[in-house]
Write a structure and sequence with these properties.
The complex is a heterodimer. By secondary structure, chain A is mostly beta strands. Chain A contains no helices and eleven strands. In chain A, strands 2, 4, 5, 6, 9, 10 and 11 form a seven-stranded mixed beta sheet that branches. Classes of the chains: A mainly beta, B mainly beta. At the A-B interface, strand 4, strand 5 and strand 9 of A face strand 5, strand 9 and strand 10 of B.
Chain lengths: 113, 111
């Protein structure tokens, strides 16, 4: 089954404790991205990647890091989480970037206290 | 930064009614205009999309209307059903290779 898998689904942590949210896709897509979803603000792009070892900032990259060492994986790293990063995070992949459908994971709800 | 303006923010309709959601964009890097549907606890999923070689595309009860000169496209849901209650997002690629999304429309369809 074609899917994007995120882990964990729920995460509660404390300020400053490094964390990683994993994302994996099995569709051999070149394009992958991370979004955060906040009430009233919709989906805002954090980082995206057009291929292995190629990443770029989205609209809200501050406080986040990503890496793309393998085509299927695109982890999101918060090296020093802060309460304003409490949000719902989605990973997505697509065959041809903005010219084709995005496939989303089921989300990771992060709470930073 | 690409601006994508989606309206209304929320919409309540009666079962059987027509739901209309609008999206306006500034520019686009790709000729591909999708609408995504999101249910609580799930990620968004592609509902319907259009390429601007046509002005309208219909799939069942869902229709996209596209106006290239006005840089607008809209989603029409005919005979709205309670199962259509969800959040809907439009998206455009803008200058990057990954879409920029509108802020979403929360649709509630009353039985």
């Amino acid at each position: 089954e074609a899917q994007v898998t995120q882990n964990p689904r729920y995460l509660i942590t404390v300020t400053g404790k490094k964390l990683t949210v994993t994302c994996s896709q099995n569709m051999n897509h070149e394009y992958m991205s991370w979004y955060r979803q906040d009430p009233g603000l919709g989906l805002r792009q954090i980082y995206y990647s057009m291929n292995v070892e190629v990443t770029d900032k989205g609209d809200v990259p501050e406080g986040y890091k990503v890496s793309r060492k393998e085509k299927r994986n695109f982890p999101l790293i918060l090296e020093s989480p802060s309460p304003n990063q409490t949000s719902l995070y989605f990973c997505a992949s697509s065959f041809a970037g903005g010219g084709s459908p995005l496939h989303f994971g089921n989300g990771t709800r992060l709470t930073v206290t | 930064q690409q601006q994508v303006k989606q309206s209304p923010q929320s919409l309540i309709v009666q079962k059987g009614g027509i739901s209309i959601i609008n999206c306006a964009y500034e520019n686009t890097a790709f000729d591909y205009f999708p609408w995504y549907q999101q249910f609580p606890g799930k990620g968004p999923a592609l509902l319907i999309a259009i390429r601007p070689d046509v002005s309208e595309k219909k799939e069942g009860r869902f229709t996209i209307s596209f106006n290239k000169s006005a840089k607008q496209f809209s989603l029409h849901i005919m005979d709205s059903q309670p199962g259509d209650s969800a959040t809907y997002f439009c998206a455009t690629p803008g200058g990057s290779y990954i879409p920029t999304f509108g802020r979403g429309t929360s649709l509630i369809v009353h039985p």
